[in-house]
Amino acid sequence: MLVSLIALMAVISFGLLTELRGFRAKIKTDLREFRTGIKADLRSFQQEMRQESRREIETAMGGVNSRTDTLRTEIKADNQQLASPMDKPDADLNGRMDRLTADLNGRIDQVYQLLPPARPKP
């Protein structure tokens, strides 16, 4: 009886050990699949963030560029109006306009210094 009880315990232990090995293998497989899925999700998220950042930077730079282009156009129009032969040039007005133009050009240069360097388009 004792021998059959020991044999029964050995069979049960072997069965439990086999089940544990199968369970362990299943857990390893599940972890590998989970890790692979997480890596793919992370790559996708990083790519989306890069694209979103690029769009935001391009939008910001486009706004600054259009404002500076508008200011330059206005300055050119004002300068042409001042240089018109119908206007009588006034030294004080020309000096003041030159100072304002220089100040505005300085501010435009400051804006360009704040922008990141332009990358060539691929």
Order of helices and strands: HH
Mean pLDDT across the residues is 80
Helical/strand content category: mainly alpha
- How many DSSP E strands? 0
Q: Output the radius of gyration.
A: 38 Å
Strand content: under 5%
**How would you describe the shape?**
rod-shaped
Characterise the protein shown here.
The radius of gyration is 38 Å and the shape is rod-shaped. Helices cover 87% and strands 0% of the residues. The protein has a domain at 58-115. The protein has two helices and no strands. It is mostly helical. The protein has helices at 2-83, 91-114.
Topology:
Blueprint: H1 2-83, H2 91-114
Helix pairs in contact: 1-2
Features:
rod-shaped, mainly alpha, 122 residues
Task: Provide a quick synopsis of the model.
With 122 residues, the protein is an all-alpha fold.
